[in-house]
Batch of 2 targets.
Target 1
Amino acid sequence: MEYLQQSFSVRFEYKTFFTSGLFELSNTGFNDFIAADSTSASIKKILFVVDQDVLKANPKLADQIRRYFSIHKAAQLIPEIIAMPGGELIKNDEGFFSRVLQIINQYNIDRHSYVAAIGGGSILDMVGYAAAVAHRGVKHIRIPTTVLSQNDSGVGVKNSINYFGKKNFLGTFVPPVAVFNDDQFLLTLSDRDYRSGIAEAIKVSLIKDAAFFEWLEANADALVARDMPTMKYLIKRCAELHLNHIAGLDPFEKGSSRPLDFGHWSAHKLEQLTNFKVLHGEAVAMGIALDTVYSNLSGRISVDEANRVVNLIKKIGFEITHPLLEVTGDDSPILIGLQEFREHLGGELTIMLLERIGVGIEVHEMDAQLIKKAGEILKNEHAALSAV
Amino acid sequence: MEYLQQSFSVRFEYKTFFTSGLFELSNTGFNDFIAADSTSASIKKILFVVDQDVLKANPKLADQIRRYFSIHKAAQLIPEIIAMPGGELIKNDEGFFSRVLQIINQYNIDRHSYVAAIGGGSILDMVGYAAAVAHRGVKHIRIPTTVLSQNDSGVGVKNSINYFGKKNFLGTFVPPVAVFNDDQFLLTLSDRDYRSGIAEAIKVSLIKDAAFFEWLEANADALVARDMPTMKYLIKRCAELHLNHIAGLDPFEKGSSRPLDFGHWSAHKLEQLTNFKVLHGEAVAMGIALDTVYSNLSGRISVDEANRVVNLIKKIGFEITHPLLEVTGDDSPILIGLQEFREHLGGELTIMLLERIGVGIEVHEMDAQLIKKAGEILKNEHAALSAV
């Protein structure tokens, strides 16, 4: 059949900045970014959508932003700072997504203007999706406020909302124009939220960087004690590994391989089953423990290394398993979750396991009996394991 | 401010096929494409969404598709062929978009499966948008059935729906995985629809390819007579120029320049004001005439060449102006349309004019008095112009 071949490449570039006190008047970094971004003669407007819990924890933030843009004028601030709830709720209820679109329309935010989101991964996902589709893409700036979003989801290229009760059913691959990680936001996090974000650092170290895993082991106490320089290093290294992965073979996930989903297949199901009462990082920590022990049982990572992984997870303060992760029969939720994950990937299962610390390996089948045994070991025998 | 630099390129490739009788059993091109596309072990499903007027004009089409996939099995056909209205209506009412999402969900269409749309530009835009955001992108195949969509919008990388009463307010830049142009669909078009698509060929010739313009002049009679080989050449050359343009500097329109929007700023307003009773191509033909005469009045294209442009538009059978394009005062709809276009572009106006046939030039201001005079010339004096 006769045809014309189309082929072109699109270059995507953005910076993930690291700062402290982003909207302090003396900190010109944000304004400098806007001033340097694009040479269009158009007026650049900027709209802020902020997690209401972040506003509550940082009661001066809205005024601080207004003052900042009254002095630093690279962009024209939309004076209304939009407050919205954070958490999974904001991705479940389409009304929040629609409201962001409505505000983009109301304030004539165009392709040369900015929609900035301040908050955790959920609000960044939702606002990022709205920004990606309004006018086929207005400029989106992410200001993640949690450990999890600063080191992982916030620096990536995905956005989404839930739909038909399915996580991330709607979304796009559209990078932000910039990410600003401000360590001051970490100060107001609860211990539980703070800890939760460390799971993704453990995950990425296990599949990409053994030295980073060793660093995590050596610095576990400082992380638990919320030592800020230690956390800043963790976030930067984790973000860097994440960014490098995206820039690798398949930024927009055209293939089936999802190495960064290590430990996630069971975690997604657990979050859903507990109605997100188990936090994402908590679920991922359990998922990592499960897939690590499974990796050992299926002849991959050594028992010594598996023990080091489980022990690090425990040392950070995570639970290592959950009753809903137990296999009690063919219809156990976790096996249904595995089936759903297979369907989500389009029929061919691809699961990342561990060859050893720092080296992952993809498999296309998982054995239900070994999943069961891995769960039992985590539940019953981890005293033995951790005694090694 | 400290930062990590992210940069990567994403390669986009797709073919625009030209065929006759796409779903005839002997034509294996479509099946060959699916069989060769991706090496995933997953089952590939395919869902068809078809313009109901196309189904009416081609009453055997649905059965033909079912028979085709019962013999050629590279993809598993979803037996339900979804019929939807064509035209702008389908982009205005979000219900159609939601229904496509619901069907994608219902039949578990995933990233390795296909949503094919058969119809004109509007239904391709809407279905393409749904496919782009479901699961962050399922594979989308376009089968354009009109001259306009086969030579222009159908081969491009944009999709959209209207929202808040604004044309294309929501959408993405996501290329299809393939386009199939089947000339058999052109046989059932009305003369008006058939003619309408020729406007984009005139447009692209004027800004890109003087030789193609001369070919259009030489073949105007054959086009009016609906000679098929002539139309096939027109569609292929126009699609090629369009594809080459996209593959050029700015596929996803990050800048303000929109050369392919030559003649479109007034056309968009006219379509909207007439509630799309004036077809897109008809409005574009008038928009080209206006901007061509304006180009002459503002010291660019010669009067001889401007006359050739207007005469070709007339010879194809288009009207060259419309009462709603007249400037009668500062609040004339066309001047409001110009203002809206400026806002749509983000404050800086960029309008393509003609330096000469085949060579465009961008300007950032338009003179209301010259727009008025151009309209008057088209209305009153074109007899004189065309006598040259």
Target 2
Amino acid sequence: MQRTSRMLTPQEALDIILAHVQRLPSEEVGLMDAAGRVLAEPLYAPEDHPPFPAATMDGYAVIHDDTSPWREVIGEQFAGHVTDVTVTPGTAVRITTGAPLPAGADAVVPVEDVELVDDHIVIRREEVRPGENVRPVGADVHRGELIVPAGTVLGPAEIGLAASLGIASVPVSRRPRVSVLSTGDELVDPGQPLGPGQIRDSNRFMLVAALQQAGAEVVWAGRGPDDVERLTELLRERIAESDVVISSGGVSVGERDLISAALRTLGTVHIERLFMKPGKPFHFVTVGRTLLFGLPGNPVSALVGFEIFVMAALRAMTGQQPVIPEPVTVVLAHPIEPGDRIEYQRAIVWCDETGTLFARNTGPQSSARLLSAVGANAYLIVPPRAEPYRPGERLRAILRRPVHGQAR
Amino acid sequence: MQRTSRMLTPQEALDIILAHVQRLPSEEVGLMDAAGRVLAEPLYAPEDHPPFPAATMDGYAVIHDDTSPWREVIGEQFAGHVTDVTVTPGTAVRITTGAPLPAGADAVVPVEDVELVDDHIVIRREEVRPGENVRPVGADVHRGELIVPAGTVLGPAEIGLAASLGIASVPVSRRPRVSVLSTGDELVDPGQPLGPGQIRDSNRFMLVAALQQAGAEVVWAGRGPDDVERLTELLRERIAESDVVISSGGVSVGERDLISAALRTLGTVHIERLFMKPGKPFHFVTVGRTLLFGLPGNPVSALVGFEIFVMAALRAMTGQQPVIPEPVTVVLAHPIEPGDRIEYQRAIVWCDETGTLFARNTGPQSSARLLSAVGANAYLIVPPRAEPYRPGERLRAILRRPVHGQAR
């Protein structure tokens, strides 16, 4: 097999991949099923919030410029219990936080500014301002206002806001349907005994976990057969049922290149190799609307390939914004040895007491050592250069988990 | 109802809550179901990785100090295809990346340093180092080594690593069983018409989404009845089936305090009010091992109460580390007006090109305005003080979503 194609930079590869992504159709889901889904269309407020002028304090609803020395309490207004009462000069209505302002009233005087004598109140201050302690109609949200932009991953705040405006279901992008297959004659499932020269199939489990966390629907996960014709047949079935097919293994020069051969037969090969480490062998192929990613067999390479490239495709498919989150800048806490390709070192990024992000890598960065990704919350992007990067120099990093402060 | 208790700071409240948390039992789950679960016991490597000395390059397996001028190629070794061949002086075996080193050999010479003539190779360099291009047994992970600490939320790297070491299932903490109820006579479900003085029930949907994203099992979600006896009865049932019961509404002074009354009857009240905004009215009650959280009815107050206090309890129950992630330090991008209690302002935190975290709030911070939490990736902690915080001053922030860099 010939490998004459130029090695692409990660950015060039992302551009090629995103140029081939097509948006998935949208579907309507109820709010109880909307968490973690990507909003397909912008949400606008169908009604005002609050829907009525509401008290923001416990107190008495009054007319602000009523000059009466004392006022008769003619009723009570609780949240959810509206009474048919109108405040006129010389009267007031007891009201609790959140309850609708009764007709006629234009202000709420807090309990603590009032003296209650029998069924009358005396206001113990000079002036009551119009609208005081009243949330007017639409104070929080105006009818027609954009409340959640398309591309937002829906969380509790967005879902609560939709509910508060009477929206019972929302349009979200369909979850991407993904098939995962691992290849390699040497693979044995965990739980089975290892024969001579055999290793565990770890990528299938790793990629399924990554897809679950990314909100994709794993429609199939299995081992690829050991024969190019049967493998091609399996892939054909998977392509028909999937938006994305991910394989691992079979793309290195030294490996039996069943996957490369099968992919070549099936579709258009756009990418074969990347100018990055780990993850140099990397296939990106399209067959109609289906995207195929041939990840390397080395688990760290497969993980990085998934998190940088497949994730970008999944985000673009569902319309998630931003498609490619902007990397952060970090200060190196120790020297970093560059390689001859762009390295994505597994790293820990934290925030110091001045608000500056610092990074250290997770030790030996062998692309077979998955332990280097355990506990890592970032990929440190290390461009090639002659001399080592010194502590205090700045590099960019892609955050894969939250950043914390330093314990005090 | 009397409110004589002192208002607690958020830190005091967290200390009280965590002192009442009991760890949930653990259960064994297969790797395909382990994503997002909390590891209950540390994982140690049951075997070495790699399990055999493996080639890291495509090339020829040789004896490093063999002085033969050329060597006969006596076999091939591919990953997963082990041949019964022994390298002796004057011989070599063709080998591919990841394949086991054949008996007798102690180094791999890469293809590009070798000239192949018929069935013999000539090494085109002076010296071959022992162990060159060979990953020895246990190079990545030693048998018995700690590979994933207890309390880790399992992601793709941890699951892949477990699989690579033959671990088929892992002990994880049982998911917390949680019941959610909203209370308030004024509440109407989204999708139903609003009557006079009525508002939507948004907290139930918001809290269910938050629980789903936190990995809890929502065993029940509904509306509380409007009568203290029936409410107490419902709560009793929910307590029996739940590790955590969360209510919203009915804890403010002005509201009909059904929840307060019911909680008081059922268990021990530890917290009633907090010195914070939003979220001052906040009940924490225990009944046996079950934790009850009485959140305010205002949606922003309920969300903040959930994310700061309930989340800490859920993390502690499952043994997740850290129980309370350390806040980050941020630089203010604009003036911030403090209040008379500790404020948790909804904010956007980003990283500038020097690696410094900056923050701005999301506009009006009314605790009824859930829009202030949409798109917010942080809570900015604003302690009370007389004068406003100036741009450039530093405060602490709790990150609730990832931080991004600035687009260039």
